[in-house]
Sequence to fold (144 residues):
Amino acid sequence: MKIRVINGPNLNMLGIREPAIYGSTTYEHLCDLIRNHAEKTGVSVTLLQSNHEGDLVDYIQQAYGVDDAIVINPGAYTHTSVAILDAAKAVGLPVVEVHISKVEDREDFRQISYIRQACVKTITGHGIAGYTEAMDYLKENYGA
Ligand code: DQA
Fold:
């Protein structure tokens, strides 16, 4: 199974940004964790990150015909981007939405998720473990 893992704005600053909310693990460490988990579970993984909305749309579109599923943490674009929602709908792949923090316990503006309506599952507040949980869910439910 081929899973594309996409991270949005400021997730490259993991370990530096607001560690009380997002933890002290760096983005590089997160990538290592995901790659190791992929190897252990027999999944192939592509890791992408961008601070730009259009890049995230491109990354989702590029999964079409290439990958079997998507794990995405769109960062703040979760709460604003119809374009990212439309891209997820366009490719028609199973998508799991991941948030490191428990967004439902945070500010009002974080209570809207546009992409959620195109997702088969949402994982919030499990820290970086949310990414590997998302991969396992996709493998169990959509793997060959
Ligand atoms: C986040 C939550 C978003 O509200 C925030 O803008 C992020 C990270 C999370 O992983 O908890 O950048 O998606």
Q: What stands out?
A: The longest strand covers residues 2-7. Residues 27-41 form the longest helix (15 residues). The beta strands are 2-7, 44-49, 69-73, 95-99, 121-124.
